[in-house]
Amino acid sequence: MAADRSKRLPRFLLGFIAAITVCEIVYYAIMIPAGAVEGFLELNAQWTAFTLRFFGLEASDRGRVLQLGSSSVLVARGCDGLQPWFLFLSASAAFPIRAGAKLRIVLTGTTILMALNIVRLSSLMLVAHFSPQHFELAHVNIWQPVFLCVALGAWMLLASRASGRLNVSHA
Fold this sequence. Notes:
Elements: H1 2-34, H2 36-54, E1 59-62, E2 65-68, E3 71-74, H3 82-94, H4 99-130, H5 135-162
Antiparallel strand pairs: 1-2, 2-3
């Protein structure tokens, strides 16, 4: 039993490295050349404009460009949330639990991360419109680390719950 435990971490790390490598190869060698990333960026712009309109703002999208009043933001490669999702997906794939539990983790985490990306893009569009001097701060210094922390935190929470190792005490 102790020998089995000592092999879990190296297996997880090797599985994680293999999975993230496959994700990156697929992204750069297949998805980008095939235009899949471009389409996904446009879809993110559409969802973001829809979200802003839902809350009463006169937002529009044209391809990958979001417009709110006289402000516009280009949803560029890297603004799609795919890199943090690859991190989440790779950690989930490498985690030693049953396939059904992995599938639930991946579906739940994917939903969380894709929804968070729309919130992120919506907030960045609002910053660009109402406080453009703070756009880079919000984009790089706030949202990038927040997104990575949420991806890792979601995986840790979902994986620990799926493996039955989360001990939560209620006050």
